[in-house]
Structure formats: C-alpha cells, structure tokens
Amino acid sequence: MRELALHILDIAENSISAGADQIKISVNEDFLNDLLTITVEDNGKGMDAETLEKITDPFITSRTTRQVGLGIPFFKAAAEACDGTFQIESEVGAGTKVASVFKHSHIDRMPLGDITGTLQTLIIGTPEVNWVFEYVVDQNCFVFDDQPIKETLDGVPLSEPAVMKFIREMINEGIQDVRQKVSSTI
Amino acid sequence: MATVKSLDDLKRIREEALKKQQMKETSGKTEVIVGMGTVGIAAGARETLKTIMDMIENENLSDIIVRQTGNIGLDSFEPIVQVVLPGEEKVTYGKVNPEMARQIIKEHIIGGKIITEYQIMG
Ligand SMILES: Nc1ncnc2c1ncn2[C@@H]1O[C@H](COP(=O)(O)OP(=O)(O)OP(=O)(O)O)[C@@H](O)[C@H]1O
Ligand SMILES: [Mg+2]
C-alpha cells in the first residue's frame, strides 16, 4: 500500500469485522518530537492472548495459516521500516487498540495520503458504526464525531448527495484548519 | 475555532432531502456494495468507491445506498462492486477501476442495463 490512509482503512476493517459499533481513529503529527502516531481503537469482540501473539509474530504468520491475514503484518512492517514501533492491545469482550508510531521525517515513511477518502469510505459505507476521528498536529486538534450528524439527520441516509458533500467538506476543512494553524505559528 | 460547517446547515440539508422524497413516489433504493478487504484495498477499492461517491454527489443521485464490506471472497477479481436495483438480483462486477465504476453508474444504475462484459458471476 502506498498511503498510510489505506493502512488505516484496512485496520479499521478489522474493527468492523470484530463487530465494533464504536471506532476511533486518531492521527497525531508531532513535529517537535519528529513522530507520527496512528491509532485505531474499537469496542469489538477482541482477541485472546494466543491469537494476539500469532498475528504479531512474523515467524508464526505463515501464509498457509488461513486465520492469519496480511493487514496487520503489513502495517507493522511499514512502521518498523521507519524506525517506528507497532503495538496491539486487546481484551476479549472489550475491544482492541492498534497503535503505530513512525519517525515523521523518515525517508521511507509513506505519506498520510487521502485521509478524507478513507473516512468517507468508512462513515458512509458503514453507517451502523459510530466513527470518531481525531487529528492532532502539534498542539492543534480537530475532532470529528459522526454521532451528532446522525442525530441531526434523524433517518435521512448518509448517502444522500448533499449529506455526503457536507461530511466531505467538514472533514477536509477540519484537516486543513489544523494544518494552517500550525504553519501560521512557525 | 468553529468550522464553517454547522449542524444548522445539516438541518437545512435534511429538510431539503425530505421534501425531495415526498415529491417522488417511493421506488425503493438501489444498493452499491464495494469489497474492502486488504486485497481489495491494495487493488484500488477505495478509489473505486470514492469515484462512486463523487458521482452520486456531483450528479445529485438520490436513493442510492453505498456500502462497503470487508470480505466478498474473490481475491483475484478485486476491486469488486455489487449492484442491487430495487426488487432485482445482485449483480457482481470484477476488477472495477474508476472508469468502469462511472460506466456502471451510468449504464446500470441510471440506465438499468447490466454491463455483462464486466460481470463475474450469476
Ligand atoms: N480489531 C480487531 N478485533 C478483533 N480481532 C482482530 C482485530 N484485528 C485483527 N483481528 C484478528 O486478527 C486476524 C488477522 O488480522 P489481519 O488484518 O492481519 O488479517 P485479516 O483481517 O484476517 O485478513 P486481511 O488479509 O484481509 O487483512 C483477524 O482475522 C482477526 O481474527
Ligand atoms: Mg485485516
């Protein structure tokens, strides 16, 4: 994959498959410490210790093991190729948190890419999940929560053209706003 | 601080949408589903879905439900797009790039004609 946003989409798909109805994605660009952190947190069914070990251990993650997929090893490899770390915590019946840290300035770090496209896909395409997106650049923060939007819509579907436009623009503006604030304070 | 977009804007959008719905006889909704597993994403499924969403937005196409799903289980045909017109059977298309997605919307969803050369089963 060529964008971190595509990895985020893929990791969030795991949360949906785990039956989560609350999923929080956060992206934190910390220029002061030269770090980029991505977390995906869900309230899905979680994993036991044995499964957890299997999916993060590259020696056990063999292709012949049907239950082990590509998504997590891919994301882990992407972080580790950038002097970064990968962490996954999970509790059966409670949820899972995946966290990847990258060295922000690392030459092999993929660009964030189309975050809005990833969020649109998730929000519009999986309306039964409550999506929260938090974007932090240094001390500036944008939080998007689709709950108040759904409450306001009160039954009007998210895939209504004007609603899709509203959500796309809201996310785009929020992201740009945070980025502009940072560049104007430097 | 506050973004330009407000929930008041959304309330207006909601009212417009409801008015539009009342004027039409309810003909049911068309469903478009795009497979979004790891293989699908790597093959460009997000761009395919994005094209479909942009087209719905730009051409103001109401009554289409867009869904994404983790696993359709046909890895070698990703990106996969499925279309269900109201009261009709599901049609599955394979290796759908953005250009093909635009064609599927025009010819199948708007025009009602299945594009058999892109179809992979059924
Ligand atoms: N958020 C999560 N909650 C519960 N289980 C999870 C979660 N994320 C991953 N898993 C478990 O770990 C397995 C491996 O995930 P991974 O993304 O690597 O592959 P996959 O989703 O099975 O297949 P794919 O190659 O399509 O991603 C999953 O099949 C699932 O059992
Ligand atoms: Mg996966």
Pick out its properties:
heterodimer; A: 186 residues; alpha+beta; Heat Shock Protein 90; 6-stranded mixed β-sheet; 6 strands; 25% strand; globular; B: 122 residues; Glutaredoxin; 5-stranded mixed β-sheet; 4 helices; 40% helix; binds adenosine-5'-triphosphate; binds magnesium ion
Explain how this protein is built.
The complex is a heterodimer of chains A (about 190) and B (about 120). Chain A is an alpha+beta fold and about 190 residues long. In chain A, about 40% of the residues lie in helices and about 25% in strands. Chain A contains six helices and six strands, in the order H-E-E-H-H-E-E-H-E-E-H-H. Chain A has helices at about 5-15, 50-55, 70-80, 115-125, 145-155, 160-185; strands at about 20-30, 35-40, 85-90, 95-105, 130-135, 140-145. A six-stranded mixed beta sheet of chain A has the order 3-4-2-1-5-6. In chain A, strand 1 (about 20-30) and strand 2 form a beta hairpin. In chain A, helix 1 runs antiparallel to helix 3. The longest helix of chain A has 25 residues, at about 160-185. Chain B has a single domain (about 30-120), classed as 3-Layer(aba) Sandwich (Glutaredoxin). Chain B is built from four helices and five strands; from the N terminus they run αβααβββαβ. Chain B has helices at about 5-25, 40, 45-60, 100-110, and strands spanning about 30-35, 65-70, 80-85, 90-95, 120. In chain B, strands 2-1-3-4-5 form a five-stranded mixed beta sheet, with helices on one face. The model of chain B has no long low-confidence stretch (mean pLDDT about 90). Classes of the chains: A alpha+beta (about 190), B alpha+beta (about 120). Chains A and B meet through helix 1, helix 4, helix 5 and helix 6 of A and helix 1, helix 2, helix 3 and strand 2 of B.
